[in-house]
Amino acid sequence: MAETTPAPRGATGPVDFTDRAHRPGKVIALHLNYPSRIAQRGRSPKFPGYFLKAGTSIARTGDTIERPAGTELLAYEGEIALIIGQACRRVRPEEGWSKVSGITAANDWGLYDLRHADKGSNVKNKSGDGYTPLGPDVIPTDGLDPAALRLRTWVNGELVQDDTTEALAFSFGQLVADLSQLMTLEEGDVILTGTPAGSSVAQPGDVVEVEVDAPAAPGQPSSGRLVTHVVAGEHAMAPYGAQPQVDDTQREEAWGSREAAGLPPAEAQEARDDRGGAEESDHYVPSQPRPDRALLTDELKATINATAVATITAQLRKRGIDNATIDGVRPTHPGRRILGYAKTLRYVPNREDLFTAFGGGFNAQKRAMDTVQPDDVVVMEARGEKGTGTLGDVLALRAQVRGASAVITDGGVRDSAAVAEVGIQVYSSGVHPAVLGRRHIPWEVGGTVACGGTTVQPGDIVIGDDDGVVVVPPQLLTEVITDAWEQEQQDAWVYDRVAEGHPVDGLFPPNAEWKRRYQEHRQSRAGQDAP
């Protein structure tokens, strides 16, 4: 973030809006303004509609925003913020723009899970701490054409919103005039002017950036990028207040479309409703899988831990899944198994300018370790690059304290002796003394990654032993483990027969006669071979 200096309200340049001396007296936000968003929503407002945001929701570039535990629809909205430069009341639309001293980037965050709570006032939905980041720089309006501004938003480096103010439903001058009919707009007040299409849901680990500029103006002035890091909150909504409440309508509006939300087309949904309800397969499937944290019961864990990874891999192959192993990684602690839900972290190749922006501070690597849940296995995509470390003892300890089962990286580990002393099981491609920035930039938490030659998604089940690591799709886990455990019982019985001197021809794999004998053996031991 740029250095900020004391400045009067309405000043231009870098301003810390979180400082009480510069905090706006009012933050007024507009519902709909950009034609692309209006078309997306399917509503055409005749007049502007507004809501207020708390001053304590204001944040700076580089700050974090928490998605409360137990919620799913924290959505970003890149916007242009108008900063009132002088008090005004009852101005005309043609005068309104002259009362604006500067503009800057804003992100009008909202938690759609609580949209129902306040019947349109948006108090809980829109006014949480950190829900209104502003900055970093204020562009003076002198000489600016308010219809020639550009707004862009990036998520994890990907451009997701890109629009201009050329065809707004309500001009900036009209907004100032409209609001000033009933209230005095004071120096330093902020008006958020709506978001274009492209607003969507952010996940913990995402980095969202917003920039406002004037490409056609002399010098192409810019607000700079307003950066927000999304983290998973540890605190759920207390029972004495409104609880999160989500339906497919909220999902569609938060994500921006039914397709982005993973919902079936409206026509298909209507047909299902006409048939009397949705099938299980019609349930919400977000673009990033949601792990079923209840999947790994104590009973299933016991069965998995009594089953070799090699056997599990064979059962996946029978189901047409050959490429499910994380290859080239070896355990720090031989003889110790791992089991858990995949929590993914992706590194991209180092580029010095990007490392400066994304490699320091509370970067993706640190956020991943700081948001681990019990039974997580942190899976790192390092592109097989072993020429530097992707994990050291401090972050290994943090993952262990948070309850992680293991860490897997197809890159290197540094401080390897200290990492081993921490005690958490680590699979890696080798050791290297160099720090992360020699080869990598920590980039993304919670996305689909490629590790050791296979694809891993958040919530996949990761199982490892001395032979290696296999990734099991959650929807196949129970049947794969049931059949793998049964296969192990049969293989153990075959092993004993070979030890007795029987030839392997017809026994391994067993022919019809040996299968009959095995079934007789199993029936005689009914209930005795449970893991």
From TrEMBL:
The organism's place on the tree of life at top rank: Bacteria
Coiled-coil intervals, chain numbering: none
Segments of skewed composition (Basic and acidic residues): 269-283
Transmembrane segments: none
Gene3D superfamilies: Fumarylacetoacetase-like, C-terminal domain, Ribonuclease E inhibitor RraA/RraA-like
Residues of the Fumarylacetoacetase-like C-terminal domain: 26-221
InterPro entries in the record: Fumarylacetoacetase-like_C, Fumarylacetoacetase_C_sf, RraA/RraA-like, RraA/RraA-like_sf
GO molecular function annotation: hydrolase activity
Region feature Disordered, mapped onto this chain: 1-20, 238-292
Keywords, ordered alphabetically: Hydrolase, Metal-binding
CDD domains, per the entry: RraA_family
NCBIfam families: PRK08245.1 (NF006093), PRK12764.1 (NF009399)
Name used for this protein in its record: Fumarylacetoacetate hydrolase family protein
